């Protein structure tokens, strides 16, 4: 399709390993999600450094299957929010409502 639009030197590379994770979303990317009204994945504050294509942790990853961390509203910043639906328009999003500003918003789930 690109060559049909006049781009002659086109190379497409697919990388399936390492598997992509939401930890790879940069601070700039997380900020852009928030400005677009989408809550970025929460609980990713323990990241340390890039090592090639992989981001590695310097401490154990906590696992809690019962409770989730509060999700901050990307519109007003309040953490007084509630989950309306575990699944949004895609399986990687959840729908939340803010009790402070009354707006609903998507959250990108951490994977």
What does this structure look like?
This protein is mainly beta and 111 residues long. The chain has one helix spanning 27-35; strands at 38-39, 47-51, 54-57, 81-85, 93-98, 104-108. A four-stranded mixed β-sheet has the order 1-6-5-4. Strand 2 and strand 3 form a beta hairpin.
Q: Tags for this entry?
A:
four-stranded mixed β-sheet, two-stranded antiparallel sheet, 111 residues, 1 helix, mainly beta, 8% helix, 6 strands, 24% strand, elongated
Task: Tell me the layout of helices and strands.
Layout: H1 27-35, E1 38-39, E2 47-51, E3 54-57, E4 81-85, E5 93-98, E6 104-108
Parallel strand pairs: 1-6
Antiparallel strand pairs: 2-3, 4-5, 5-6
End-to-end separation in angstroms reads: 32 Å
String of helices and strands: HEEEEEE
Strand content: 15-25%
Radius of gyration: 17 Å
Supply the number of helical segments: 1
- Largest sheet data: 4 strands, mixed
Q: Name the strands of the widest sheet in spatial order.
A: 1-6-5-4
**Low-confidence spans:** 44-54
Share of residues in helices: under 10%
Kindly state the mean pLDDT as a whole number? 82
Write down how many β-strands occur, each being a DSSP E stretch of 2 or more residues: 6
- Overall shape: elongated
Query: What class would the helix/strand composition place it in?
Result: mainly beta
